[in-house]
Design a protein that fits this description.
Blueprint (H helix, E strand, L loop, with lengths): L8 H14 L4 H11 L7 E2 H7 L4 H13 L3 E5 L6 E5 L3 H26 L5 H27 L1
Antiparallel strand pairs: 1-3, 2-3
Helix pairs in contact: 1-2, 2-4, 5-6
Length: 151
């Protein structure tokens, strides 16, 4: 079997490390995701190609693909008259990723408010820092949401 896409090894390794850390996914799932990043023409990558190119067992590749599908980072597609499934990066992955970031920021804001309301001691310096920090969180939420609306 030949590789259906061209991959730069250095960029691939950097992408594996970056996505593994930032998407909090295991190493093989990160390799699959990084490999799919190079599918610029959206030809799709088959299960067998992942097994061969990444020198991984079928069960490990299957588990990693399931994880990526469940987290909506990738999608699959069957071409007409073929039984093979082809895998692609989910074009919505950026929106999904940043919606999760916005949700975490909003959750942190709520937690800060709850803690501040529970706090018995009134400290003006703490209150000032909290106000600045909450403004930063709100500004980031606003910026991300504005960008998401443009996507």
């Amino acid at each position: 079997m030949h590789k259906s896409i061209e991959v730069d090894e250095k960029i691939f390794q950097d992408a594996v490390k970056f996505y593994g850390t930032n998407l909090n996914i295991p190493p093989l799932a990160s390799k699959i995701y990084a490999y799919l990043i190079f599918d610029f023409d959206k030809v799709g990558i088959t299960f067998d190609e992942f097994v061969e190119v990444l020198s991984a067992s079928k069960s490990s590749v299957s588990t990693s693909i399931s994880l990526l599908l469940n987290s909506q980072l990738i999608i699959d597609h069957n071409k007409m008259d073929e039984r093979k499934r082809y895998f692609f990066i989910n074009d919505e992955h950026i929106k999904i990723r940043f919606k999760k970031i916005v949700q975490r920021l909003q959750d942190e804001l709520k937690l800060l408010d709850d803690l501040n309301n529970f706090r018995k001691v009134h400290d003006e310096q703490y209150k000032e820092k909290l106000t600045i920090y909450k403004a930063l969180l709100n500004k980031n939420i606003s910026n991300i949401q504005e960008s998401l609306n443009k996507l």
